[in-house]
Amino acid sequence: MINNPSPQLTEQQINILRLEYFNKSNDAVYVFDFEDGLILDANDYVCNMLGYTREELLQITVFDIHPEEEHDRMIELIELFAQEGQIRGVSDMHLKKKDGTWIPVEKNGTLFPINGRKVVQCTCRDISMRKKFEAELNKRIEDMHILNTVALEITSGLELETLLPRITQSVVKLLNADAGMIGLYDARKGSLKYRYLYNMPDNIAGLEIPRGAGLTGFVLESKHSVSIPDYQSYPKSLKEFREASVRATAITPLLIENRLLGTLMVMHLIPEKKFNEYDMGLLESVARQAAIAIYNAQLFEEMKEEGDFRQALGQLTSLIGSALDINKVYDLICKEGTRLFKSSGTYLYALDTNKEMLIGKMAYGEKAEEFLKIALPINEPSLATYIYHTRKPVLIDNVEISPLIKAEVNKKFKSKTLMGVPIIVDGEVKSVLVFASNERSFFFSETQLDRAKILSDQVAFAIKNAALYEQTRKALEHERYVAITLQQSLLPEKVPQVEGTEIGAYYAPTQAGGSLVGGDFYDFVQLPDGRVVIVIGDVSGKGIEAAATTAMVKYAIRSFIYRNPAPFYVMTQANKVVSMQLKSGLFVSLCYILYEPKTGKIELANAGHPYPIHFSADKKACKLIETNNPVFGLISDFEYTQVEKKLAEGDILALYTDGLIEARLDHDFFGADRAKESVCKNYNKNAQNIIVDLVRDSEKFAKGNLTDDVAIIVLKRH
To answer: Is 0.85 surpassed by the pTM of this model?
Structure first.
């Protein structure tokens, strides 16, 4: 209560105060008498914050809107006003609402005279959220201090077999639990298997937990942490866990960006021990760190596996690419495929000459001799005929329940899981390749299936080469005509038709050196979105070896285009594969174009290849597109860069191999400048005729003596 109420300010004075101090503020502002603490005025924010009307506030003192526990602190502030005339940033106090609850505030205030009396204008900002955040931050700091050692432990390795024990043992120790285990989730199968157990019986490692089944299955389905005080009384408890004397249990999902990786579980084996909310918080914190570590480890394993696969695929491609006997190709693919995919056996069906049967042509591994006796009518239901008719790859996780596998066949071969891909040559399924495993715990993955498809493309190319060789072997000279056959098989059968753009292409082999074939090549790939990939290159060397290397380069590039057609990516990845396979002293120059016909946009990467010529219709001038990337095979881990250009209406882009510009007369070369002159003077012709004149000008300069292969591609945009 106020013993000596101060005389009230006049309405005019109050209005002046409100206008000057209140109305422009976004915080709670009130004015009180310095002598007796009587509240003289308050803005609407104070009323809304504390639940008082303005009239009620004018009947009480500043002490009435502060908790009694803070009155001494309020007196200290009033003394501070008397000494310094102001306070700033005081954040250790509260305002008391009419209902008695407290609001943490930050205070700022000024003491000043009005009409001969001292008044205090005080601004209060609600810092409830700040205090909440500070409390949470302090708790997190404390938790982070506890977890720091654990985090360092579980993130210091990139191998799962080392990482999983570290995670499990660390969290068991941190929560003073008796046992723990970590499981990894297989999204394709929709189930989890425990990969590491700590102080739990080994038979649990054999369990496969589907989503929704038991406690672990519930966590997989809900993606939420769960704690139960006594597992023995849990309605959906598993016998193996009950027999292991599991009691209090805490389990949390391992998630990264909502992607489910597995679960982390800790248990008490003594009835008296329980997990509290703080324990759950620590468990979840460890799980977050563990999920990142596991994700990184899985990526590392995938990258290592991908690297191993690329190397093995490169070696296999080189082997089958140089094998011109089709049975040798079949033998290599079955033997090396078994090693590559860790299968129990690899089996190759081939279409018979009458196209009525799929016969067991080649096999390696389990029951290989039995497989060679198989002859399947193409209309008889089976895995091989299904792949033959649908032209689609197939994964079968459980052979026993698959409608594609006959019981008598399964009884004979005893396979548990299968993976099969078609081998398509010139648009026709020629063979079916099947990988099998008889290990119950082993499953082929989607990644392996993708790799098997890449391998089947390589096999198709090798089969085509072998078939071509077989057809021409008796009639043609061994070196001369085998080489030309291979080279022709590497070039596209036709130039793509692109709306709004003419594309011309040309290839002529050299007659020098007794061989028809060098390493010049070009390729086109039309993407589903309408963009076109254009590749032109030159492999050093001549003859069959150059053609085989060309094949390896071409299909290495193609294998990455459908993952990401961006020039920098395809060139960087293909160079890694090619570099491993090139013999010492061999190199490949290459120019890779990603062309968007609708806009004329060109993305270009160049690996030591002659610079493309760009004719500008607007400027009526030619310019070289210069880049500085090395040839393939020089630096295996080089990160290739790309440039962007745009073909306007009437613009021309000419790509060529060095055989064009290195046409020579005595010591003088035809050169890029003469090539630009030829394009410029013939800009009004169509794409193919521009090529004709380029070749004619080069031959005329060299007096018909061209000593190297020549490949040319010209784009002309309308």
So the answer is: no
